[in-house]
Specification:
By secondary structure, the protein is of the alpha+beta class. The longest helix is centred in the N-terminal third of the chain and has 13 residues.
Length: about 80
């Protein structure tokens, strides 16, 4: 719906200074391995930069997916450079 798209566009504009990777929607998720039985499958992703975990949780808390009955998982990205 257009109202949903407008909410997403507004939210991404509001957090634009934090966006590292806008991400993309995901479809038909299939789990493999020990964590295959997740309660809420991933429906998309975005990567944001935040000064603290609290700041990241604030960004996630304002995500329009909540209006659609969805949830957001917040995780820290780790560097694996040798």
């Amino acid at each position: 719906p257009e109202t949903s798209l407008a909410k997403w566009n507004d939210w991404f504009r509001e957090i634009s200074s934090h966006v590292v990777d806008l991400g993309a929607p995901a479809a038909d998720p299939i789990g493999v391995g020990g964590a295959a039985d997740v309660d809420v499958p991933m429906s998309g992703y975005s990567v944001v930069w935040a000064e603290s975990r609290a700041a990241a949780l604030k960004i996630a808390g304002d995500c329009p997916i909540h209006d659609e009955g969805g949830t957001v998982t917040v995780a820290r990205c780790l560097s694996v450079r040798p």
